[in-house]
Specification:
Elements: H1 9-20, H2 25-69, H3 72-76, H4 80-91, E1 100-107, E2 140-150, E3 165-175
Antiparallel strand pairs: 1-2, 2-3
Length: 181
């Protein structure tokens, strides 16, 4: 008596051969991991560029703030636009100068300095209360500089974002040198 399974013998051999054949396995495995791998690499690159841009903004703010701290900005009659230009000179290849927002103000002591982020509840940037007051000798000055960095991969910008962009900030507080002007 013949078994029913023997009727499917060519099919069983084909299945067994297919399981042992691994010639396309690499292509299938790559297809499964390619998209997550490329997304992860893109996120790593975007994060690295974001940290580089933030560091450049911080350095440019520190360099421009030195002009206020030493009294050179006050002596030269700087206003907000001239100070923004000095910050922009330090980050020109990375940033568009029109997007740089500056807030320079004096305060009575370091503990009462306003270093909060000017973002409204709806997620928009609020620079309506920004001013430029570089102070006089021995005044305490707080310099805040902001820039909306466009997100390349919007996946990273969902939690800590400003209208889909990253908000880069550089803040420095210092006491002006005792200059007489």
């Amino acid at each position: 008596m013949r078994r029913i399974e023997d009727d499917n013998l060519p099919t069983r051999r084909a299945r067994r051969g297919f399981r042992k054949d691994s010639s396309g396995a690499t292509a299938v495995e790559f297809a499964l991991i390619a998209l997550p791998f490329i997304a992860m690499m893109g996120a790593i690159i975007e994060t690295g560029i974001l940290y580089f841009a933030d560091s450049a903004l911080d350095n440019a703010t520190s360099e421009a703030s030195r002009l206020i701290r030493t009294g050179q900005a006050q002596q030269s009659g700087f206003d907000a636009a001239a100070f923004r230009q000095k910050v922009c000179d330090g980050v020109t290849p990375l940033f568009t100068c029109s997007g740089i927002k500056v807030d320079v103000r004096t305060t009575t002591d370091f503990s009462s300095a306003d270093v909060g982020t000017p973002v409204k509840a709806d997620g928009s940037f609020d620079d309506s209360k920004f001013k430029y007051d570089a102070g006089h000798g021995t005044d305490i000055v707080v310099v805040r500089v902001y820039y909306e960095w466009p997100a390349m991969l919007n996946l990273l910008a969902k939690d800590s974002s400003l209208n889909g962009n990253h908000l880069l900030a550089a803040v420095t507080a210092f006491r002006n040198e005792p200059f007489s002007w």
